[in-house]
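Structure tokens please, single chain.
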Amino acid sequence: MISTTDLANAFEQVGARARISPMGMDLRVQPADQPGITVTVATDHRGPYFLVRLNYTCVVDLRVVKVEPENFELVLSADDWGNAIDVPPRVFRCVAAPGGWFVESESGANL
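Here you go.
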């Protein structure tokens, strides 16, 4: 698991801000059925930033796969150890586009 400081630094390398925070528990859903991580784009008074929310009831191995400052692209891989062994990691591609920052999320991508 990457530290929150290293994760924030990786986002800064591509020119983005990030906020890492815990994910609230949804008591209507079993803990094992809740995601271990979500990555979205949010906005505050300083502009857009990536909101990385971690579910601390799950063990998630989060790592930075690729940082390309020249392309304003950061790729994260999140392997949720609570899932079955054959479930591939989730991949989050955080990138700038003409309309602003966005996140592409996919399961089972080839890293």
